[in-house]
C-alpha cells in the first residue's frame, strides 16, 4: 500500500511538472585550445548527439580555458590564459560584448562556489584563487597562499576548497575561509587538471600527463585508476544518466564513459569542427522562452551539478521557490531575501529534483535539475 501511494504521488507530481513544461534544447560546447600558445583557438558548439559542429566563438580569445554560462543575463564567460582576461559574449550568438574581468595572471578554471560567487584559478602570478560577483565586480583574493599553474577546482561536502596544481603534481586543500590546510595529494599524479568529488567522498582527478583518470579517497589516499588509456585528457561534463564526457587531447575528440569509467563511445569524433585540443566541455540545456513570468523572471543554471543559481530579475513577482524530490516531497524552500539566491545540494543524495517557482499571480513553473557531486 505504501509503495502504491508513493507511486501515485510520483505520477501526480510528474503530471504537474508536465503541465507547465517548456520545450528544451540541449547543446554541447567545447573549448579548443588549438596549438596551446599558438592559434587556432575556438569555442565549438555541437548538437545533443555531439554532431553538426559550428564555430561559436573565435575572436577575443587566446588559449581559451573554460566556459561558463550566465543564463539570466544571456551571457557566456570565456577565460583565456594568453590575454589575462575573462571575456563576456552573447550566450546565443557568441558575439563579444565586453571584458568581464582583467588583471588575472593566466585565468584557467571558473566555477560558481557554494556562496554564489565566481571562483577563478590562475596559471601564473601569485597563484591565488580570485573571487568575483557575477557582474564582474572583484571581491578578493580568496586563498592565503598560491597554487602554481592551478587548473582544477572543487569543494568537498564540508565546503572545503581543493585546487589542483599541474606542475606541482598535487591537490591543495583550503578551508571555507580560504586558509591553507594541507597538501591533500602529493603522489601518484603527473600533471593533474580537472577534479571532482563523488557522493561517497572520493576525489576523481584527471591526470593529463599520466594518461589516466584516478581515484583517491576522502583522506587523499590513492585507490586506483578510474579510466585508463586516455592521453592528454582535459575537460569534463556530466550527462543526465550519470555518464561522463572527457576531452581526449591525444585524439582531438571527446569520449563518453559510464559512471564506472567504462568507455561507451567517442561522443565527438576526432577533428569534428576542426577540433584540435579539447580542454573544457559544457552541457547546456536551454528552456525555450514562453510568454509567462518564469521565462522572463527566473533562470536556473546549471541544471546538472551541486550548486544551482536561481537568477531572479524581480523578486517582487515571486511568491516562493521550493525544491522537491522525485516523490513530490519538499526538500527545502529557498530564501528570496539573500543577495544571491541559490540552492546548495550538498546535503542531499545524487539524483533528480524539481525546483518549483510560484509567482504572486499564482502561475507556477518547475525546472528539473540533476544533483551530481
Summarize the structure.
The chain has 373 residues and is mostly beta strands.
Can you describe what's shown?
A five-stranded mixed sheet has the order 26-32-31-28-29. By secondary structure, it is mainly beta. The two termini are 33 Å apart. A hairpin with a 5-residue loop joins strand 18 (212-216) and strand 19. It is globular and about 55 Å long. It has two helices and 32 strands. Helices cover 6% and strands 49% of the residues. The chain folds into two domains: 2-22 and 290-371, Immunoglobulin-like (Sandwich); 24-285, TolB, C-terminal domain (Neuraminidase, 6 Propeller), CATH 2.120.10.
Q: Could you name the key traits of this structure?
A:
Immunoglobulin-like, globular, four-stranded antiparallel beta sheet, disordered N terminus, Neuraminidase, mainly beta, 373 residues, 2 helices, five-stranded mixed beta sheet
Average pLDDT, rounded to a whole number, is 89
Strand content: over 45%
| Tally of DSSP β-strands | 32
Structural class: mainly beta
Shape: globular
Helix percentage range:
under 10%
**Spatial strand order of the main sheet:** 26-32-31-28-29
User: In CATH, what is the homologous superfamily of the largest domain?
Assistant: TolB, C-terminal domain
Major beta sheet, specifics?
5 strands, mixed
The CATH architecture of the largest domain: 6 Propeller
What is the total number of structural domains?
2
Cα distance spanning the termini: 33 Å
Low-confidence stretches: 1-21, 288-296
Query: Number of helix segments?
Result: 2
CATH topology of the largest domain: Neuraminidase
- Which CATH C-level class of the largest domain is it? Mainly Beta
Task: Compute the CA-based radius of gyration.
Answer: 20 Å
Q: Regarding quaternary structure, how should these chains be classified? A: single chain
Amino acid at each position: 500500500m505504501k509503495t502504491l501511494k508513493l507511486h501515485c504521488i510520483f505520477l501526480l507530481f510528474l503530471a504537474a511538472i508536465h503541465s507547465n513544461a517548456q520545450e528544451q534544447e540541449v547543446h554541447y560546447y567545447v573549448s579548443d585550445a588549438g596549438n596551446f600558445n599558438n592559434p587556432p583557438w575556438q569555442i565549438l558548439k555541437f548538437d545533443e548527439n555531439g554532431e553538426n559542429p559550428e564555430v561559436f566563438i573565435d575572436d577575443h580569445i587566446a588559449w581559451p580555458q573554460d566556459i561558463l554560462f550566465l543564463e539570466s543575463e544571456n551571457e557566456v564567460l570565456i577565460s583565456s590564459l594568453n590575454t589575462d582576461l575573462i571575456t563576456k559574449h552573447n550566450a546565443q550568438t557568441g558575439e563579444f560584448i565586453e571584458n568581464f574581468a582583467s588583471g588575472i595572471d593566466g585565468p584557467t578554471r571558473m566555477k560558481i562556489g557554494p556562496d554564489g560567487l565566481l571562483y577563478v584559478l590562475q596559471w601564473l602570478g601569485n597563484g591565488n584563487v580570485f573571487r568575483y560577483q557575477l557582474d564582474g565586480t572583484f571581491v578578493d583574493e580568496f586563498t592565503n597562499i598560491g597554487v602554481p599553474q592551478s587548473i582544477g577546482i572543487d569543494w568537498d561536502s564540508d565546503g572545503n576548497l581543493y585546487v589542483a596544481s599541474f606542475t606541482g603534481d598535487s591537490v591543495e586543500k583550503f578551508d571555507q575561509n580560504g586558509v591553507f590546510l594541507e597538501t591533500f595529494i602529493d603522489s601518484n599524479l603527473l600533471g593533474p587538471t580537472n577534479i571532482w568529488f563523488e557522493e561517497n567522498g572520493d576525489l576523481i582527478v584527471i591526470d593529463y600527463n599520466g594518461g589516466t583518470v584516478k581515484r583517491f579517497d576522502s583522506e587523499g589516499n590513492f585507490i586506483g585508476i578510474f579510466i585508463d588509456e586516455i592521453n592528454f585528457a582535459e575537460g569534463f561534463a556530466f550527462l543526465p544518466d550519470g555518464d561522463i564526457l572527457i576531452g581526449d587531447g591525444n585524439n582531438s575528440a571527446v569520449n563518453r564513459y559510464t559512471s564506472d569509467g567504462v568507455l561507451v563511445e567517442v561522443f565527438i569524433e576526432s577533428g569534428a569542427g576542426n577540433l584540435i585540443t579539447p580542454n573544457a566541455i559544457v552541457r547546456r540545456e536551454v528552456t525555450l522562452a514562453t510568454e509567462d513570468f518564469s521565462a522572463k523572471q527566473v533562470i536556473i543554471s546549471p541544471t546538472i551539478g551541486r550548486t544551482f543559481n536561481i537568477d531572479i530579475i524581480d523578486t517582487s513577482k515571486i511568491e516562493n521557490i521550493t525544491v522537491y524530490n522525485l516523490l513530490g516531497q519538499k526538500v527545502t524552500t529557498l530564501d528570496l531575501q539573500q543577495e544571491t539566491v541559490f540552492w546548495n545540494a550538498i546535503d542531499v543524495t545524487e539524483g533528480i529534483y524539481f525546483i518549483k517557482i510560484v509567482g504572486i499571480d499564482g502561475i507556477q513553473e518547475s525546472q528539473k535539475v540533476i544533483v551530481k557531486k
